[in-house]
Design brief:
single chain, 445 residues, mainly alpha, Rossmann fold, Serine Threonine Protein Phosphatase 5, Tetratricopeptide repeat, DNA Cyclobutane Dipyrimidine Photolyase, subunit A, domain 3, 3 domains, three-stranded parallel β-sheet, two-stranded parallel ribbon, 20 helices, 4% strand, binds flavin-adenine dinucleotide
Length: 445
């Protein structure tokens, strides 16, 4: 049995090759209610579409995907009994929940082995350590060691050479979900997106990757999240000139490794003293949070980002940093609150990248940006969305504004256009407040 999880593809799939070596293969996916709880409708809809695509690909080779809802430690042994499978093959999961779940499943399977081959990473979390065996806490050092470690080339998994077992029934559930426009799901779509990026934008990536108005990053994150394409496949197409892009893939690997070594860092402050800082709570804080989450802070680049998140289930990386910084350093709310909202909305929502992306911005994590580095939302908007095209795309109330006005609509003689809120806080003031709060924890012994 091949139990698919974050590896929803047939190409470059070492676990598939290993399963196929043993005989006929039955394909399973388990919709686990525990994982459903952290995911909003957009990611679930993208997952189901990815499963449908995988099922279609399997059918083209004479197989099919069995999808069952339930706890994996019940469903997997049940399927093993029904199918008579002699072993269960998986790509290893290194995130805290997944690792524990797999240990439980292995136990309930008894004498039927749970065989782990490959992982969602070019280098499995845990492999790259310092010489003394300790994990890296700093990206640049990790990156050097990760590159020196190297990775394998793509695995030559050939689905047409597999003796697939087609199962009746148990197809992908047709769940009616509130829909927003989602990218096309599946392995072939992932390859199309990658090829288009290679041909059109990779060469300019170092110059344009911070520009949300141009939108020229790869947009591969939802596919990487569900394993529709493997990072090894991407790395094999890259050359030494593509260092900037390789580095971004390495951030994903770094955060997965950090989460593997410090599983509690998904929810706890990586730098514990930062948990003692004063954060806002109560009804006023809730109101601030709502304004932020709905894209009504009065700061155009922040609102554009938060509305992109609601409208697409995705947000540009630069704007993730700006909006996260605004929540923590302008509104003085805990990063965990913002991270939960992101995790719920993002179609690429990934525990390691999300929680550590947040901790980085909040100054509480690995490689933490120094606390005095506080994004000014107006300056950031002017720098990375110079003509305001990104803002205009997502904040229609501002669509008639140009030049400086679109970044600071409150400064117009006529004030902000009707329907658009005034700034909920004054950045210059909140910046000083944030510095004072950080100082109180960083200067304490
Ligand atoms: P590209 O620029 O084309 O990069 C290629 C790939 O490299 C991405 O798909 C991603 O897998 C990886 N990558 C790039 N930047 C980062 C990074 N900073 N950290 C980790 N991996 C990176 N990424 C997620 O995949 N899931 C998340 O839940 C997530 N949450 C984030 C939360 C915050 C607060 C921040 C600041 C960043 C977060 N990121 C997350 C990282 C990054 O924003 C996205 O990976 C990126 O925007 C995806 O767009 P892309 O595929 O076009 O990226």
């Amino acid at each position: 049995m091949l139990w698919f999880r974050r590896d929803l593809r047939l190409g470059d799939h070492p676990a598939l090759m290993r399963a196929a070596n043993e005989g006929p293969v039955v394909a399973l996916f388990v919709l686990d209610p525990a994982l459903r709880a952290t995911s909003g409708n957009a990611r679930l809809a993208f997952l189901l579409a990815s499963l449908r695509s995988l099922d279609a690909d399997l059918r083209a080779h004479g197989g099919s995907l069995t999808v069952r809802v339930g706890k994996p430690d019940s469903v997997v042994p049940e399927m093993v009994r029904e199918s008579g499978a002699r072993s269960v093959h998986i790509s290893a999961d290194f995130a805290p929940y997944g690792a524990e779940r797999d240990a439980r499943v292995a136990e309930t399977l008894g004498t039927v082995p749970l065989v782990r081959t490959g992982s969602p990473y070019a280098v499995a979390p845990g492999r790259v350590t310092k010489e003394d065996g300790n994990p890296y806490k700093v990206f640049s050092a990790f990156y050097r060691a990760w590159r020196a470690h190297g990775w394998r080339g793509p695995a030559a998994s050939d689905p047409s050479a597999v003796d697939w077992v087609a199962a009746d029934g148990d197809g992908v559930p047709e769940t009616p979900l509130a829909q927003i426009p989602l990218p096309e799901a599946g392995e072939q779509a992932a390859h199309r997106v990658w090829q288009k990026f290679l041909g059109s934008h990779l060469a300019h990536y170092p110059d344009v990757r911070d520009r949300p108005d141009l939108d020229h990053t790869s947009r591969l994150s939802p596919y990487l999240k569900f394993g529709a394409i493997h990072p090894r496949t991407l790395l094999a197409d890259l050359t030494p000139d593509d260092e900037t892009f390789v580095k971004e893939l390495a951030w994903r690997e770094f955060y997965a490794a950090v989460l593997h070594f410090w599983p509690s860092s998904a929810h706890d402050y990586f730098q514990p003293r930062m948990a003692t800082m004063a954060y806002e709570t109560g009804p006023d804080a809730d109101e601030m949070f709502e304004a932020w989450a709905s894209g009504n802070t009065g700061y155009p680049i922040v609102d554009a980002g938060m509305r992109q998140l609601l409208g697409e289930g995705w947000m540009h990386n630069r704007v993730r940093m700006i909006t996260a910084s605004f929540l923590v350093k302008d509104l003085h709310l805990e990063w965990t609150r913002g991270a939960r909202h992101f995790m719920h909305q993002l179609i690429d929502g990934d525990l390691a990248s999300n929680q550590h992306g947040w901790q980085w911005v909040a100054g509480t994590g690995t490689d933490a940006a120094p606390y005095f580095r506080i994004f000014n939302p107006v300056t950031q908007g002017k720098k990375f969305d110079p003509a305001g095209d990104y803002i205009r795309r997502w904040v229609p109330e501002l669509s008639a504004l140009e030049g400086r006005d679109i970044h600071e609509p409150w400064r117009r003689a006529a004030g902000a256009p009707s329907g658009y809120p005034p700034p909920i806080v004054e950045h210059a003031h909140e910046r000083l407040e944030a510095l004072a709060r950080y100082k109180s924890v960083t200067s304490s012994p």
